[in-house]
Amino acid sequence: MSIFATRKNTFARNIGKMKLFSGVKGKLKYGFLLYLCTLFIFFVDFVVSVFTSNVSAHMDVLSWGYFVIASLGHAALFALLLQIVFYIPFALLLRRRFVATIIYATMTLSTQIVLILDMYVFDLYKFHINGFVLELLFGGAATEIFVFDWTLYLSFIVIVLFFAYLPIQLSVIISKRYYEKLKPSKIRKICILLVFCIVASHLVYMVAHAQKQYSIQKSATVLPLFFPLTSNTLLSKWGLVKTDELDKVSYRKTSSDIQYPVNPLVLSDSIPQYNVVYLVIDSWNPTTLDSIVAPNIVSFAKRGHTFMNHMSSHCGTRGGIFGLFFGVSLTYEQEFYMEQKSPVLVDRLLQLGYHFEMFPSANFASPPLDKIVFKAVPDVRTKAKGDSPMERDKDITNGFIDFIDNRTDDKPFFSFVFYDLPHAMVMPKDSLTEFLPSWDAPYYIKLHNGMDRTPFFNLYKNCVHQTDILVGKVLDALEKKGLLENTIIVVTGDHGQEFNENQKNYWGHGSNYSKWQLQVPFIVYYPGIDEGKVFNHTTTHYDISPSIMSHFFGIKNPSSDYSMGYDLWDDTDRYPHVVGNNVEYGFVLHDLILTTGHSGRMDIFDLDMNEVPRSRINVQELNEAIAKKNMFYKK
Class assignment of domain 275-629? Predict the structure, then answer.
């Protein structure tokens, strides 16, 4: 082979390598521009969320500057994850970037849809989509727990089209047209800027947390999956920590081990064999307990005792039912689940040979009450029959009536009948509408702070009214069977339901610990009761189990051995009232509501949900609240 031919072959190979390198380089430049477009889309999402959630009302110039930097940095991380996982590997492995673009665009579209959903969730409830919310939305029980009108689906499709699909399509077009104009120097400068934003977002937050700079901390709550750094210990060495009396308060548990009950139960043999029936209405606003909306329940209340200031243990079903049965806050759920703890009330009734029959309208799978509250109960019914909340509520009503009509033994029984219609707020089109004007479905997308709530609230009242009719059938059946002579009956809600009563744009439940999301009606009846009494002192869900246990099932222990509550008829001060879960818990005090979050920030509100300064907190009362929260950890 001639020298000329050898040189020609070498030159050809070098040209091939250059083309290959040029192809990879082009794909990466194209991917980088696609990354920047995606970053910008996510950044716009975060900014829009500030305004829709009204967080901007609490922000000043300093917090706005921080928020822009933090949003850019957080959007950069979101987009970088998509780029690394769904573009770069496919772009390098495949000859054509078309396939990599399709994969990346599809995953970006999915992420954008989730972020849009998150904006709505954060606007209504002031928290982000989390594992529990995703379980509800996409779990098998989702269609039973949430019922949406077709117009809501149509609106969401339009929003996704204009704010997700079209922007991503535009990003692809821009990237194709302009990626070749990207110079390495510009890429370096942009990367340096984004790294600066990421690092600064955490360092500035760390100092803001140490300095009690509230507006910066508040602005950071808008960003989903944002877990900023905090390091008061390090910054205190540099003299950057601003301290006050509250910083001396210790939130630590005395132990990681629980003791529930604290002492062995002391039992009495002389007890009546009363049946127990819990009639629980999901999301029950206390203002609907009147003779027009709920005539059957009001009529029955005159035969028992009514407690006018009764608070649930949580603003959601999981914590509300947990506190109702265990007598303690949801902060213990993880430990109780790991140690296979069952409520003392349930264990005692099983010990006494009670027959359990559960009648849930919505599926017990979400939340999994059958595995937490009723784990010791065999053959728990977990769902009702029917394609709508109304049908399922009718099914559990008929199921309970059939049960008491066809009992084949003389065993005392415990029944839990759990109605869902006021939570779902979907009325069948052929149902009689008592309260007008009324929506025919919950149009969540229409909710805002300045709207007239009347048609929405009337929809809710119509649902409560229908539930009252079903509860009336249950009460009538108990009376006709002569069971009122030997049955304890509890009528209450798992938690409240807010309709913007405080004019802070809070709707529904699960977003705060105000009166409107915690307070529920509470009525108790038992054989021989002194009828028609009304009590105005504060009571809570924590009181119910110890009251029933001590009065009717022979438990001599003080309630503090197995509950955070007291005897229902004892007017002992219930404050501080512990609420929340093990990650985000709170305390309702006499005139304040305190909430804590994963980022270490404490939010402080008055009882009308107006934010107030830290100086309003009584340190002694806060210490009492923490001690109450931790009372079942071993000393």
Answer: alpha beta
